[in-house]
Amino acid sequence: MSSIRDAVNLDFDAIVEASEALGYASRDSSDIESDLSELIRSERDCLWVFEDHVGVVGWLHAHRSVRVASTAFIEICGMAVHPDYQRKGIGTALVSRAETWAAEMGLNLRVRCNSVREDTHKFYRNQGVSLVKNQLVLDRYL
């Protein structure tokens, strides 16, 4: 049986494995574990995992934005489905869970995605998400 549930600290290894399989940058495991623990405790964030008979094979992190003027939204900040389990409806189910949360809050759904992830852009367009704008992120490392 498959289900989507709130992540718990014991999901750490599976979340990292799915993330690394998709090329998310590797970081120190204690930093990742600390970040995941913070997301799990957060009132503004949801971290869900998709679990089936083999265990956790995907995850999605969504964040409830702070209302600025009249604009607020639920933003999908990250999602990964292990490559062995892609194209089986898992990503769609996770996005649907985020949409449900947004609807419950009376908010719209937003997704930010790296500009080089063209397959991911296509996936989100197939979920009914429309391009609003392109932007650059510029950093100065000091």
TrEMBL record:
<keyword id="KW-0808">Transferase</keyword>
<dbReference type="InterPro" id="IPR016181">
    <property type="entry name" value="Acyl_CoA_acyltransferase"/>
</dbReference>
<dbReference type="InterPro" id="IPR000182">
    <property type="entry name" value="GNAT_dom"/>
</dbReference>
<dbReference type="InterPro" id="IPR050769">
    <property type="entry name" value="NAT_camello-type"/>
</dbReference>
<dbReference type="GO" id="GO:0008080">
    <property type="term" value="F:N-acetyltransferase activity"/>
</dbReference>
<dbReference type="Pfam" id="PF00583">
    <property type="entry name" value="Acetyltransf_1"/>
</dbReference>
<protein>
    <submittedName>
        <fullName>Acetyltransferase (GNAT) family protein</fullName>
    </submittedName>
</protein>
<feature type="domain" description="N-acetyltransferase">
    <location>
        <begin position="2"/>
        <end position="142"/>
    </location>
</feature>
